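EI: anyone free to look at a 204-residue chain?
SC: sure, send it
EI:
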Amino acid sequence: MFTSVDDVSARLAETGYLASSAVATTVFLADRLGKPLLVEGPAGVGKTELAKAVAEVAGARLVRLQCYEGVDESRALYEWNHAKQLLRISAGRDETWDEARTDIFSEEFLLTRPLLTAIRGDEAKVLLIDETDKADVEVEGLLLEVLSDFQVTVPNSARSPRRAAPSSSSHPTPAESCPRRCAAAACSSTSASRTRSWSAGSYG
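SC: here you go
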């Protein structure tokens, strides 16, 4: 997507994001190497804005996963529409369980969450995984699977995401293996005039 570090700086500047040379270099390397972009920094330095700027440059849809204590796989990846499944089972009382089972676990009954939304379909997407430092161990494992292979295993659906990158407000990140899967950049406190430029996001 980017031809050089200067190209990164110029194209992000067109969106109103003034990237430092360090951030522009990291974005370029992440894009060239096909790696997620991990951006760390305290709250308020504009980490999310980088993901928005990259999405705008790429002409991609921004998909956001907000991590917090208690977020689980059903909130991050997918869950089944149980109410709709029960209605389907009730409506097909004359069917065997094997016949009903192949139907109720089809895509029609699947409720997609941010990670699966980013992975599915042909539309270009940028996946923002915000505040990975707040994710529980169970979700960390799921995030590492996505960051490592750019895919997850889901019944009847498994595709590759376009771009992904997590952001973190603390250092070190909870999953020590996360930085090894990413191109990492650090955002520090900046003057008000540069706050918009220092956006740290996940693009994937």
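EI: The beta strands are 37-40, 61-66, 78-80, 110-112, 125-130, 163-168, 183-186.
SC: 👍
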